[in-house]
Amino acid sequence: MSPDPSPRRARYPLRLRRRPVRWERQVPTWRQARPAVITGALQRALARPSGNWFVVGATADVTSTRPLSGTVAGTEVVVWRDARGRLVGGPGQCPHLGAPLADSPVRCGTLVCHWHGLSLDGSAYVGWEPLPVHDDGVLVWVRLDAVGGEEPTRAPVVPVRPAPAASVHAVWTGVGTCEPRDVVANRLDPWHGAWLHPYSFVDLTVVRAPGDGQDDDTFVVDVSFRLARRVVVPVRAEFTAPEPRTVLMRITEGEGVGSVVETHATPLGPDGLGRPRTAVVEAVVATSQRPGFALARALAPALRPLMRTAAGRLWRDDLAYAGRLRDLRERGMKEKGTTMAKNTESRKNTKDTKDTRHAENTNETGNGKGEKLVQGDEVTWNSHGSTTEGTVEGEITRRTEAAGRTVDASPDDPQYEVRSAKSGKPAVHDPSALRKKRTGD
Ligand code: FES
Ligand SMILES: [Fe+2]
């Protein structure tokens, strides 16, 4: 249904959109984006083996003097290069008194604890046991059998990438309030691309989805990457989930065939409010057969920040999407929402598309007084006689410390943690004190 031709490689990489369609006039995708298809693909992804491997971060962040550290499901880990340049790693707590080894320097391949000087060369020492680690050249992985609970494997499931000598890569990392499955679910919904990210994607058509009479679990998507208002790069891309915490996008036609975007979701552990946090580590590995790509490779140091900026912009919205999925699940409303979607779908032949779209895109939830709010909602409240604007960070349903005080909340009497847009400071308010902002407020 794309108004432009198929994305085969053209003489020039860029194209002018011949018949640009306004955002609100593009074909709605909600009928194709059936919850059952997305959930089915997600469940099959979650059932694939990972061998208990988790992405920690970018290979480039392990330097000769600093380790790379991270938290996986509440377990601190640290990795560095030993005297022979091999990646080594293990628990991120010093075996002496528990110093954070993330803050310790590496000297000649030895990690030296900055509290009392205990040295680790990567082998077992006074209670510190190394963990299996893997460097795939772009990303660093650690194997945590106690966390994964699966049959361990010798190496992680690393997607096939373009050859390093013919590619440019960049890694972006962000954190969301959600679980890894929410990140994967977001990526297994290609239909949202041109609706949620119109600044990056236009003319998106899902050519094939799992369940379309195909055996494999691949989504095939025609989409144009938007570089300027009408200047686009059309491609065909395939989305797959090779393991439970990875979604792979590979360009199969058009510019940059073979380029991949790998999205890896690593569980970090709960935040101060008990909500799950997940790190998204996204590796973009771009390649092109164009002669000019050699120049692009030479410019890689300058290109990487741009690639990261593009990924960060998309993930701002996608992490809100993933956080919302988690929030709905938490509130037990996911099933209800699915039922609503089914009911709406059953009416699809009798309901005018425009009306339905209007209903879906219009916020019709009350006047804001005491209503249910979710992470990311923009709200206002009165503070010292004036109106303050901010964003909901989360619901508090138990007695906890937040915004510098003890909050006495319960499931029947929840409070909301909000962050002021002006001061950036957190605050906690009763639902009745918060007013949800509406379009036009
Ligand atoms: S805590 Fe690391 S040497 Fe004492
Ligand atoms: Fe997205």
Automatic annotation (TrEMBL):
Residues 330-441 are annotated as: Disordered. This is DUF2945 domain-containing protein. Residues 53-142 form the Rieske domain. Keywords: 2Fe-2S, Iron, Iron-sulfur, Metal-binding, Oxidoreductase. Gene3D superfamilies: 2.30.30.1060, Rieske [2Fe-2S] iron-sulphur domain. PANTHER family: 3-KETOSTEROID-9-ALPHA-MONOOXYGENASE, OXYGENASE COMPONENT (PTHR21266:SF60), IRON-SULFUR DOMAIN CONTAINING PROTEIN (PTHR21266). Residues 344-361 have a biased composition (Basic and acidic residues). The keyword Iron applies. Residues 380-390 have a biased composition (Polar residues). One of its GO terms (molecular function) is metal ion binding. It holds the Pfam family Hva1_TUDOR. The keyword Iron-sulfur applies.
